[in-house]
Amino acid sequence: MKILIAEDDSVSRLVLSTGLRKLGYEVIETEDGEEAWGLFQREDVHMVITDWMMPNMDGLQLCRSIRAMQESKYTYIIMLTALDGKESYLEGMNAGADDFITKPFDIDELTARLRVAERILKLQAEVKQLEGLLPICAYCKKIRSDNDSWQAIETYISRQTDASFSHGICPECYQSHVRPQLDELKERHKHKSIGM
Question: Which domains occur in the chain, in start order?
């Protein structure tokens, strides 16, 4: 699992990255939120551990940017902070943080929180997979919607997405279904012409 660290203090960053690597994580290190945001957009990151107060882009701005991106895959965000109090936590949660660790952090506490994060990410991936399953009739190919009504696949997808359809016939269906019908029509026409 890949973790992106955004921490401007080099000692804290080294301790954190060393601890994470010992736990078996792949780690990407950055010195501030701006650098982290750039890497986040290019890398397949599962978790972000960010300091709250950093130059250029702080942890709150980084959280907001990640959440605004609206990726299909969820990223778990842990915020490191020296700040105390409910107000700080609420501000961080509203920005998109999932969890907080007070500085200086304890590696055992971090390990426990990472295990929770892994479980949550796994559950979210399973839910996403289940949401992707569509109950479809094996005969007519209609899809059952959320309200238990059956709809043509085109209707269902048009209502659920911005997709639109243009109909066509694939080469296999043309050969197995359409071509025989055309040949039969030609034969009938030929026989009618001869009979006249």
Answer: 2-131 (3.40.50.2300), 143-195 (no CATH)
3-state secondary structure (DSSP) of residue 71:
coil
> Residue 91: its pLDDT value, please?
85
Distance CA 157, CA 78 (A): 36
Q: Nearest Cα to 46, choosing from 109, 117, 108?
A: 117
C-alpha distances out from residue 45 to 50, 113, 140, 194, Å: 13, 17, 41, 73
> 138-166: per-residue pLDDT in tens?
777 788 877 778 888 777 777 777 777 77
Phi-psi group of 72: left, alpha or beta (phi > 0 → left; psi -120 to 50 → alpha; rest → beta): alpha
Q: How far apart are CA 129 and CA 136, in angstroms?
A: 16
Distance CA 190, CA 182 (A): 12
Q: How far apart are CA 76 and CA 47, in angstroms?
A: 5
pLDDT in tens, 41-76: 999 999 999 999 898 899 999 999 999 986 668 899
Q: State how far the Cα of 102 lies from the Cα of 98, in Å rounded to an integer.
A: 14
Cα distance between residue 66 and residue 97, in whole Å: 10
Structure tokens at 13: 């960053």
Distance between CA atoms of residues 16 and 106, nearest Å: 10
Q: Which two tokens stand for residue 179?
A: 């071509």
